[in-house]
Amino acid sequence: MTRFGIVGGGLMGHGIAVALAVAGHHVVVYDADCATLASLDERVVRALGRCEMPPDDAGPVAARITAARTLSDMVVGVDAVLEAVPERLDVKQRVLEALEAIIPAMLPVWSNTSVLSLTEVAKGMRHPQRLVGVHWWNPPYVIPLVEVAPGAETDRRFVREACELLNGMGKTTVRLHRDVPGFIGNRLQFALVREALHLLEQEVCDPVTIDTVMRASLGLRWSAVGPMENADFIGLDLTRSILESLAPHLSSAVTFPALEKPLDAGHRGRASGGGLLTWPPGRGEEVARRLENGIRRNLVEP
Fold first, then answer.
1. What's the CATH class of domain 3-175?
2. What is the rounded (10 degree) CA torsion for 279, 190, 194, 191?
3. Largest CA distance in the chain
4. 4 and 27 in contact (C-beta within 8 Å)?
5. Which residues lie across from 76 on neighbouring strands?
6. Sheet of 172-175, strand order
7. CA 267 to chain centre
8. Which of 82, 147, 257, 302 lies most in the core, judged by the most C-beta atoms within 10 Å?
9. What is the chain's pLDDT, residue by residue, as a tens digit (302 residues)?
């Protein structure tokens, strides 16, 4: 594959386009929102700057990413299509229905869903065997991991081909045995988020303390040794004992008062200037830089 079409040019869509273009692929991006499409070039240049790519190299890479004014224009001559539209099942299904009306029957389609069941996303498709869950992590041009999963009807050939292409780009791929909402990473991540919210609701600490604990302990350890290796390292007998003691006290909540209170007050987080924390002007950009720089520092050979 050398030419990709991407539906959705937002945060993930433009980041995936950059990752593909850096690897030498040509990418055509379409977004139904004219403002998002109009800002594509600017955001691509900004992302390449964060990659610390010299201008002489960044120019040709950016030139491999173009915008399409219509969905039909986007799919002309592509070898695969990626959907990176919002995480709403109805939206993704409508996009796939529109795509299938204009692309060949066996053209690979990748979904960047991060939490939805791929089997549910594929419902209504005429050719669900070609849909593969290909979940990139943000920012896609920095984080090496890509999770790849089949839906219930996916032809495993498409899964294998996706992994081969991504591995050829230097990505670290993990292939799930079956479809599960959230893949692996988000299930682990949001189990931790749920427990963090539980600690807030129990008035154990404040949000800054939770972030401090993560950044100064678990975040440092998990970049070197994963939880399964650590379970073996400390001993499965000790791991079992700890779980038997802690598990009854861990959250199993499906509603989250610690989120509802700020949301009810109109505080959505960074975009509104406040949420669990305060977000004065400039903090969002500072966090984005710190995030990418921190990821790069941790990119060491296992």
1. alpha beta
2. -150
3. 59
4. yes
5. none
6. 65-67, 26-30, 3-7, 80-83, 109-111, 131-136, 145-150, 172-175
7. 24
8. 82
9. 689 999 999 999 999 999 999 999 999 999 999 999 999 999 999 999 888 788 888 999 999 999 999 999 999 999 999 999 999 999 999 999 999 999 999 999 999 999 999 999 999 999 999 999 999 999 999 999 999 999 999 999 999 999 999 999 999 999 999 999 999 999 999 999 999 999 999 999 999 999 999 999 999 999 899 999 999 999 999 999 999 999 999 999 999 999 999 999 999 999 999 999 999 999 998 998 899 889 988 886 54
Query: Hey, what are 286's tokens?
Result: 């500072």
Which tokens belong to 105? 């029957």
Q: Which two tokens stand for residue 118?
A: 């791929």
pTM summary value: 0.93
Contact 12, 25 (CB under 8 A): no
Q: Out of 1.10.10.10, 1.10.1040.10, 3.40.190.10, 2.60.290.11, select the CATH number for domain 189-265.
A: 1.10.1040.10
Backbone φ, ψ for residue 14 (5° rounding): -70, -30
